[in-house]
Design brief:
Layout lengths: L5 H14 L1 E7 L8 E9 L2 E5 L11 H13 L2 E5 L2 H4 L21 H11 L2 E5 L2 E2 L12 H4 L5 H9 L5 E6 L21 H12 L4 E6 L13 H11 L6 E7 L7 H4 L6 H11 L6 E7 L7 H20 L3 E6 L34 H13 L3 E5 L5 E7 L1 E9 L2 E9 L5 E3 L1
Parallel strand pairs: 1-16, 3-4, 3-11, 4-5, 5-7, 6-7, 7-8, 8-9, 9-10, 10-11
Antiparallel strand pairs: 1-13, 2-12, 2-14, 14-15
Length: 426
């Protein structure tokens, strides 16, 4: 399914080794030579995530809520939170951030999401602050000048979450005009200064956060030139003096099954993928693969295995690239994607692009991801202190649990090992 070459396969393996791992020294002053030291990676510095849109949202079978909560934290260390304006403030002045807010399908209250993230050491990411759509109905028909004060909802969001959410996605899908077929009666969206004003306000209210730009899947369907629409859009936004810290690229392979093979040849070509990543790296900003959907279409074993194969290849390539810092899958459970809650096979549910089946059983894709992140891309060693009182090892960047045994008994220390912390003294 994935088109590749030996040169690209070598680049992937070499990239993972070079960009995701480092050489570290643990220096002990009170530990004799020959003593054992247990070294185990507990959490990657790199972020593997998914959207958290179904947190406690399984009204049809509440037993699924517990499974979702358990499975999410088992693999992911990042969660995308729904900051859609129509869900945050469906009625003017009546926000629903607090955890006991009225239900809104696939839009769990932000406070509930934050609570889950904090309890499980998961980094939250704000999605969809400004959009092409998903505006509340009470904004319909208003001009840009009439709406501008409402964009100051950022002030409210900032006061509650700026110190808790490192990355704020300011704009999403500003070039994906197909979304307007839903019927965009929001006049202000078409104003030439809409995008710039969004970024200026975001910079004002989130001065210490990373500000992200995000765009649809078409960004991969080009020739990787500096004349592509998204490239020019970013360039123009920066030229206007706007602050962009992170560049997001969606990756939804939502094509009808009968045309799937034909329409994914470019997207599944490793040479093309590397060209796109290399091109957007020219801005000198970290890249995020923000929304991923790989379809299985049905529950047939061969289709689910093919989905897993594609995901394994893509994740390996993205993980290897020096500019990529986050990989975020989108809908985790089949039957609960973006569509009417009573339609489990229509809309995005048609693709069966989840990592879990409708009954919450694990698909091969989830098992494959878990193995990659927790078993293949991990560091778990038992080493001896040398005559200099040191332990040297090569491992993945992240947070480690170090267990040592000395005269006082066994003790456990948690440390961070990254590019800026390669010698740790004990």
């Amino acid at each position: 399914m994935i088109i590749t070459t030996q040169l690209n396969e070598d680049r992937i393996q070499e990239g993972i080794e070079k960009n995701r791992k480092g050489n570290f020294t643990l220096r002990f002053t009170k530990l004799d030579a020959g003593k054992k030291v247990y070294i185990k990676l507990k959490n990657h510095k790199f972020k593997f995530g998914a959207n958290l849109f179904m947190l406690d949202e399984f009204a049809d079978d509440k037993s699924k809520n517990k499974i979702y909560r358990e499975k999410f934290k088992e693999v992911f260390n990042l969660a995308t939170l729904p900051f859609y304006w129509n869900a945050n403030e469906p009625e003017e002045g009546k926000t629903r951030y607090h955890k006991d807010a009225e239900p809104f399908y696939r839009r769990p209250p932000i406070d509930l999401c934050m609570e889950y993230c904090e309890e499980n050491g998961i980094e939250p990411r704000a999605h969809g602050l400004c959009y092409t759509t998903f505006f509340p109905n009470w904004l319909s028909g208003k001009s840009f000048n009439e709406v501008e004060p409402y964009l100051r909802r950022m002030c409210e969001i900032s006061s509650q979450y700026a110190d808790k959410i490192p990355t704020i996605e300011v704009t999403n899908e500003m070039l994906w005009h197909d979304s307007l077929w839903w019927g965009n009666s929001f006049e202000f969206y078409y104003d030439d200064d809409y995008m710039e004003r969004c970024y200026k306000l975001a910079e004002e209210y989130f001065p210490n956060n990373k500000l992200a730009i995000n765009e649809g899947t078409f960004v991969w369907n080009g020739n990787a030139t500096n004349r592509e629409a998204y490239y020019l859009y970013i360039k123009d936004t920066l030229a206007r003096g706007c602050k962009i810290d992170v560049i997001g690229l969606q990756y939804h392979m939502m094509h009808k099954e009968e045309i799937y093979y034909q329409h994914t040849r470019w997207f599944y070509d490793t040479s093309c993928l590397f060209k796109i990543l290399d091109r957007y790296s020219e801005f000198g900003k970290p890249l995020e693969i923000t929304e991923i959907t790989i379809p299985a279409y049905n529950d047939k074993e061969e289709n689910e295995e093919a989905q897993a194969d594609v995901i394994e290849k893509l994740y390996s390539l993205w993980f290897s690239h020096p500019s990529v810092e986050k990989i975020i899958y989108w809908n985790l459970v089949d039957g609960y994607a973006f569509v009417d809650p009573n339609d489990t096979s229509g809309g995005e549910n048609y693709y069966k692009g989840g990592l879990f089946r409708y009954d919450m059983s694990e698909k091969p894709a989830f098992k494959r991801l878990r193995k990659l992140i927790k078993e293949v891309w991990t560091t778990d060693e038992i080493l001896m202190v040398d005559k200099n009182g040191e332990v040297n090892f090569r491992g993945f960047y992240g947070n480690y649990e170090i267990v040592v045994e000395d005269k006082e008994g066994q003790r456990t220390v948690c440390i961070s090992c990254d590019e800026n912390n390669k010698v740790i003294n004990f």
